[in-house]
Design goal:
By secondary structure, this protein is α+β, with helices and mostly antiparallel strands. It is about 40% helix and about 30% strand. It contains 4 helices and 5 strands, in the order H-E-E-H-E-E-H-E-H. The chain has helices at about 10-20, 45-55, 80-90, 105-115; strands at about 25-30, 35-40, 65-70, 75-80, 95-100. A 5-stranded mixed sheet has the order 2-1-5-3-4. A hairpin with a 5-residue loop joins strand 3 and strand 4. It is globular.
Amino acid sequence: MSVSSLPPSVCALVFSAFTELLVQSVQVLFGAEFRRFSLDRQKPGKFEDFYQLVVHTHHIASTEVTIGYADVHGDLLPINNDDNFCKAVSSANPLLRVFIQKREVIFYKRTANNG
């Protein structure tokens, strides 16, 4: 049986399953705005390229931000180097949820709590 002889619904299901193995869906939240895009799950690239994509997608290229992701347990973990970027992509299933915060806000909160 060839693929062309399969019913369209079965072909769509097979294609969807195959695509999920190769593509990582990413959802990025900054403030109240979500952006979505996909990455190659096998070769996600470097953290710096991901960082530039995220800030460009949100039109905040001139803003210094901290990037984190929600792991499978719901914990917010940082994405700040190639190792934890690859860990974030490899552990995400089915969606990598990324959160962005301005660095000034984080610094202000720490300063306010310390003094």
